[in-house]
Specification:
It is built from 11 helices and 27 strands. It is 34% helix and 24% strand. α1 runs parallel beside α10. β15 and β16 form a beta hairpin. The strands form 9 sheets. Strands 5-2-1-9-21 form a 5-stranded parallel β-sheet, covered by helices on one side. The chain is of the alpha/beta class and 405 residues long. The chain has 2 domains: 151 residues, FAD/NAD(P)-binding domain, CATH 3.50.50; 203 residues, 3-Layer(bba) Sandwich (FAD/NAD(P)-binding domain), CATH 3.50.50. The longest helix is centred in the C-terminal third of the chain and has 28 residues.
Length: 405
């Protein structure tokens, strides 16, 4: 216990899981019952499911970013803007770059890092859709390539090409934004649209491996009809300064912008802190606690939460992270009051992928499939629901995608 005898709860990371856990703790516990501290690298929160739009330049960066103190009352929660270096879990201590903290209960929501699966040159030559700053850089780089092409008589057409490695959720949503953004850039810089190639490379036999076959067929056709080149079953051997070397013939696909979206892993802080990892994440108990540590909860992209019936982890999605937060907030309250803990049960609301501003596909309410504008609208509704849960009507009106008028 801390000096004032109130248990101290430290939440690491202000992503979906961290923000919603903090909100739940505020609701579950009075200021007299516990001290709550939220630690984050930046003084803002952003929706990771909007990053592909920021990277393509189809959304205003100010819409993506939310100041933490606008959502979390700093008089109720101590906000610390610092970088986590290591968790010393046997001493109940967190080492930060500029200070350190002790805790009674720890919630680890440090998010994901890009996983390049050891592909040679990917770390050196590709951009990553990883955080707010990295996506802003991608947007600026793409626009720079168009501006430079117009002003440099020696510029090669391949410098306009955009190469996207990975045909999973993020990669395909990013390509969906690009097929809408590129024609606008061509018009702005007076460049023939035919000179710009958008190429998606996926090693698996199909893009979007976790989606229903009909939905995948729709997505593929939609993107191809709008000018995207999709290469499935094509392995990337190496990423060079010029592009990807792919396939059995070691073909070089040249591009001025190379973006890798092919995989993520949990924060490297987990490994540095000595947690037992499976593919970069901690397999937590059903109550979301780390094995061997009754006061440490691990949520979101840092955790594998097992679906015991299917004997596999639940997909690490934003909706899962938000649901982790509810269970975690309830369980910390239960621990403080010596009450029984609850097991996490995932309630699948469905998954919708955007394929640009007015197109999309997905399934909701079990197996109801949505296509086109209906899916695109549902995706915006899902995004807006999170804003409402996070900050109420005020935040929804300020940052929401579906405008009431």
């Amino acid at each position: 216990m801390t000096l004032n005898n109130k248990p101290r709860i430290v939440v690491l990371g202000a992503g979906y899981a961290g923000m919603m856990t903090t909100k739940r703790l505020i609701k579950n516990l009075s200021p007299e019952e516990a001290e709550i501290i939220l630690v984050n690298k930046h003084n803002y929160h952003y929706q990771t499911t909007w990053l592909h739009e920021l990277a393509a330049g189809t959304i205003n960066q100010n819409q993506v970013r939310i100041m933490i103190r606008d959502i979390i009352n700093p008089n109720r929660v101590r906000l610390i803007y610092d970088t986590v270096v290591k968790i010393e879990k046997d001493d109940n201590r967190v080492i930060l770059e500029n200070s350190e903290l002790t805790y009674d209960y720890l919630v680890v929501c440090l998010g994901y890092e890009t996983n390049t699966f050891g592909i040679k040159g990917m770390d050196e030559h590709a951009f990553f859709i990883e955080d707010f700053d990295s996506c802003r850089l991608i947007r600026e780089h793409i626009e720079y390539q168009f501006a430079k092409f117009n002003n440099d008589p020696n510029a090669h057409e391949s410098s306009l090409n955009i190469l996207v490695g990975g045909g999973g959720f993020t990669g395909i949503e990013f390509v969906g934004e690009l097929v809408e953004k590129v024609p606008k850039l061509c018009k702005k810089y007076d460049i023939d649209r035919g000179k710009v190639k958008i190429v998606n490379v996926e090693a698996a036999p199909s893009i979007l491996p976790n989606f229903d076959k009909d939905l995948v067929t729709y997505a593929r056709k939609s993107l191809q009809e709008r000018g995207a080149h999709i290469m499935e079953g094509t392995r990337i051997h190496e990423c060079t300064e010029e592009g990807f070397i792919v396939g059995e013939n070691n073909e070089l696909i040249k591009a001025g912008t190379i973006v890798w979206t092919g995989g993520v892993t949990g924060s490297s802080i987990l490994g540095k802190s000595g947690f037992d990892l499976t593919k970069g994440k901690v397999t937590v108990h059903g109550d979301l606690r780390a094995p061997g540590y009754n006061n440490i909860f691990i949520l979101g992209d840092c955790a594998w939460v097992m679906d015991k019936q299917a004997n596999r982890p639940y997909p690490p999605t934003a909706q899962a992270a938000m649901q982790h937060a509810t269970t975690c907030g309830n369980n910390i309250r239960a621990l403080i009051h010596n009450e029984p803990l609850e097991e996490f049960v995932f309630s699948d609301k469905g998954t919708v992928a955007s394929l640009g501003v007015t197109d999309g596909m997905g399934a909701i309410l079990g197996d109801k499939k949505l296509y086109g504008k209906a899916a695109a609208t549902m995706k915006k509704v899902v995004d807006d629901r999170y804003l409402f849960l996070l900050g109420g009507p005020k935040l929804l009106l300020k940052k929401g995608k579906v405008r009431p008028f």
